[in-house]
Automatic annotation (TrEMBL):
Lineage of origin: Bacteria, Bacillati, Actinomycetota, Actinomycetes, Kitasatosporales
NCBIfam families: PIPSynth (NF045883)
Stretch list, region Disordered: 223-242
Name the UniProt record assigns to this protein: Phosphatidylinositol phosphate synthase
Principal location: membrane
Membrane topology annotation: Multi-pass membrane protein
Binding positions (Mg(2+) 1): 84, 87, 105
Length: 242
């Protein structure tokens, strides 16, 4: 989120970036920039794209996934999820990247993620009938939200949080959605392929846990360094004042 950018190209420090955000974002920025420019010419605002994209993801996840329609759910979600890359691109082309936009983008990311993993959980709690996978899915949902929270809270207390970790949002989505899309082919007669979704959910669960530990350790180190720095500066300031 929120990286400083110019002409649609990310210029943020890449320290600690996970693989997709580091490499795929640049590619999709190039691909999606003409489409973002087209929407701007049609008078569409970045906020509209953010809202419509989220609504599409939520609808795709909650209409199809609880019924076990993983292929069609993933198709609908995939059509809308790239709006998350288009809205920021539009804001940057317009020179209108704003704090409000950053807040809206991140907040609605959490809503979309909740719907995707909530849709899987509803399936396993219902006709999918698997308590263990329901629990793993709920862990994916909760840990993904906490992983994002660690960064937001760390940054809110003035720390750089200079690590993104092993599995950030793009990885969580790509692993889960690609697996769900292929697993959905089971309904079209492809045998055995439905096992991909449970495998993906376990990978996302373990990866999110590792990422959470990476971020907590980083915030602890950064906050200790910041507190020590503040303690060193405090006596100097009182000497200057007296
Ligand atoms: C046989 C047929 C099967 C059909 C299968 C169809 C499969 C298609 C499947 C999936 C496509 C999935 C695409 C997912 C794309 C995700 C794009 C996206 O939204 O990325 C968002 C991400 C982060 O954006 P932000 O910076 O706006 O968000 C920040 C983030 O949420 C932070 O969270 P944290 O990481 O901390 O947990 C928050 O902290 C922060 O607040 C928030 O603002 O954007 C990126 O990272 C950019 C990279 C995107 C890379 C997309 C790669 C897509 C790659 C491949 C998809 C195609 C796969 C096709 C398979 C086809 C098989 C037939
Ligand atoms: N409605 C919006 C959405 C996003 N922004 C800005 O873009 C940044 C996120 O970029 P992505 O490529 O990850 O979408 C966000 O931090 C905002 O600066 C906006 O202004 N308005
Ligand atoms: Mg976005
Ligand atoms: Mg986003």
């Amino acid at each position: 989120m929120g990286q400083p950018v110019a002409n649609g190209a990310a210029t943020a420090p890449t320290l600690g970036k996970a693989m997709l955000n580091k490499y795929a974002r640049a590619f999709f920025t190039r691909v999606l920039t003409p489409f973002a420019a087209f929407l701007i010419r049609r008078g569409v605002s970045p906020d509209t794209v953010t809202f419509i994209g989220t609504a599409g993801v939520v609808a795709g996840a909650l209409v199809f996934y609880p019924r076990g329609e993983f292929f069609w759910g993933t198709v609908v979600i995939t059509l809308f999820v790239f709006s998350d890359l288009v809205d920021g691109n539009m804001a940057r082309q317009l020179g209108r990247s704003s704090r409000w936009g950053a807040f809206l983008d991140s907040t609605l990311d959490r809503v979309a993620d909740g719907a995707i993993f909530g849709g899987f959980a509803l399936w396993y709690a219902g006709r999918g009938d698997d308590n263990v996978l329901c629990a793993v899915t709920l862990f994916c949902l909760a840990s993904g939200q906490v992983v994002s929270y660690t960064k937001a809270r760390g940054e809110a207390i003035g720390l750089p949080v200079a690590v993104n970790g092993l599995v950030e949002r793009a990885e969580r989505l790509v692993i889960s959605l690609v697996a769900a899309g292929f697993a959905g082919l089971h309904k079209f007669g492809v045998p055995g392929i439905d096992v991909l979704l449970p495998i993906a959910l376990w990978i996302v669960a373990v990866g999110s846990l590792v990422t959470l530990v990476q971020r907590v350790v980083t915030v602890r180190r950064e906050s200790e360094e910041a507190d020590q720095e503040a303690a060193r500066e405090a006596p100097q300031q009182s000497e200057t004042a007296s």
